[in-house]
Hints:
By secondary structure, the protein is mainly α. It is about 65% helix and about 0% strand. The protein contains 8 helices and no strands. α6 (about 90-100) packs across α7 (about 105-115).
Amino acid sequence: MDLAAWPVHRARLQLAHGSWLRRRRRILESRPPLRAARDGFDALGAAAWGRLAREELRAAGEESAGRETPSGERLTAQELQTAMLAAAGLTNREIGQRLFMSHRTVSSHLYRIFPKLGISARGQLRTALETLPQSAD
């Protein structure tokens, strides 16, 4: 039976099968279905199920990194404001005056923002911010 049309059920069955194999001490055999389950849940955005699959994989002796979050979700609100003002061309002192912080704090925020956005120069901020997903407020 092809379960391609039912991705949630397929991933749950793979998780159950991998768990069953692991509990029967068939560790090496359990890893492929557990990996497939993890990948399926990640593709569907089912974070809780993905965590379960990762826990089973860890119990089977395989480390599995958590799902990568989009870089925009990792910026704090203040970092996002700072990045937007810097992308608009304001200096650190001007940004500090607008956000009621010192220019050194602005520098510190930018120092943390660059790696989060995967950039290395202030001139890349505008492009990096345009690619961030928009929140549905």
